[in-house]
């Protein structure tokens, strides 16, 4: 088994076991066991990566754990939700089979997928102070909890970075001073007609 991520990679083999996530027990789940991985992955404060994309892009056509949860009738609804707490505060959650209504107000706006591979959707534009700064005329976007970066065409990313006052680090990545967040402009992502 060899997997290349956006940053990093792993080599290993496939295994099969019972997987428990909270109170959910998934029988006969196939998963990857890492033998070697990128150096930075060794030092992450986690034991692994849980892939939540579709089987169509899974390594060796492995059925993802959430698909097995649905197929084995282990969740009340065929959906999962993610809440990411701010900064390094505890409290981030993944909820399989529903949503935690305490983390939002109003109604959920559902956006259709444009491809059942990644969680890919239509993005209409990225605007700052009413000016379109990226994705002019629309583009495709992937919602990915496995990355902390916004990735896109160089010209669009450079334009966003310029508007928010980002500086470029030694890896060529734009970074912002989070202590200055109160002075930063609002960045609006319009997805399928919803800002």
UniProtKB/TrEMBL annotation:
Pfam family, one: Asp
InterPro entries: Aspartic_peptidase_A1, Aspartic_peptidase_AS, PEPTIDASE_A1, Peptidase_aspartic_dom_sf
Molecular function as annotated in GO: aspartic-type endopeptidase activity
Transmembrane regions: none
Residue ranges occupied by any Peptidase A1 domain in the UniProt entry: 1-195
Gene Ontology terms describing biological process: digestion; proteolysis
The keyword Disulfide bond appears for this protein: yes
Cystine bridges: 135-139
Keywords, sorted A to Z: Aspartyl protease, Digestion, Disulfide bond, Hydrolase, Protease
Keyword Disulfide bond carried by entry: yes
Stored PANTHER family: BETA-SITE APP-CLEAVING ENZYME, ISOFORM A-RELATED (PTHR47966), PEPSIN A-3-RELATED (PTHR47966:SF22)
The family this protein is said to belong to: Belongs to the peptidase A1 family.
UniProt-recorded name of the protein: Pepsinogena
Species the sequence originates in: Solea senegalensis (Senegalese sole)
Lineage per the UniProt record: Eukaryota, Metazoa, Chordata, Craniata, Vertebrata
């Amino acid at each position: 088994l060899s997997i290349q991520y956006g940053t990093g990679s792993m080599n290993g083999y496939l295994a099969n076991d019972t997987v428990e996530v909270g109170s959910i027990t998934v029988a006969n789940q196939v998963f990857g066991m890492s033998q070697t991985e990128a150096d930075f992955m060794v030092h992450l404060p986690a034991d692994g990566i849980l892939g939540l994309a579709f089987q169509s892009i899974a390594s060796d056509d492995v059925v993802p754990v959430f698909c097995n949860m649905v197929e084995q009738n282990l969740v009340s609804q065929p959906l999962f939700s993610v809440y990411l707490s701010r900064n390094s505060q505890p409290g981030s959650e993944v909820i399989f089979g529903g949503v935690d209504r305490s983390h939002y107000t109003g109604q959920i706006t559902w956006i259709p997928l444009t491809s059942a591979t990644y969680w890919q959707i239509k993005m209409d534009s990225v605007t700052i102070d009413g000016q379109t700064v990226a994705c002019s005329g629309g583009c495709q976007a992937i919602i990915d909890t496995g990355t902390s970066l916004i990735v896109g065409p160089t010209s669009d990313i450079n334009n966003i970075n310029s508007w928010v006052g980002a500086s470029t680090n030694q890896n060529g990545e734009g970074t912002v001073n989070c202590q200055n967040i109160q002075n930063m402009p609002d960045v609006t992502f319009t997805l399928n007609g919803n800002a």
